[in-house]
Amino acid sequence: MDNSGTLIGKTALVTGGTAGIGFHTAQGLARLEAVVFITGRDEHRGHEAERQMRQAAKHNRVHFILADASTVGGNQQLACKFLMETEQLHILVNNVGGLYNDRWETRDC
Predict the structure, then answer these.
(1) Residue 76 domain-assigned (yes or no)
(2) How far apart are CA 102 and CA 105, in angstroms?
(3) Which comes out higher in pLDDT, residue 63 or 101?
C-alpha cells in the first residue's frame, strides 16, 4: 500500500488549535491522517473543535488537551498531559501566542 501524501503513523501537536490558523492547520494534518493533539484554554470550544476535525478527517485520532500557555507552569502541565497520551511527537506547531504593545509578566516570572 502506498502511503505517500499521508501522515499515517505521525503525531502532531498544535498549540492554540481550537480556532483560526491553528484550527485549520490541525484540521489539515488530521485530514492527512496524522494523530493530532490540539490545545486551548476554553474547554467547550476545544471539544467542539475536536468534534469538527474528527468529522472532517473521518477518524477519531484528534484529541483536545486543555492548556493555558500563558505561564511557564501551564506549559509544563501541557507537557505532562501530552506525555500521558503519547510518547512520540513528529510535528510541533507553536501557534499560540499574542502581540502586545505593553510589557506584562506572568505570575511565574
Answers:
(1) yes
(2) 10
(3) 63
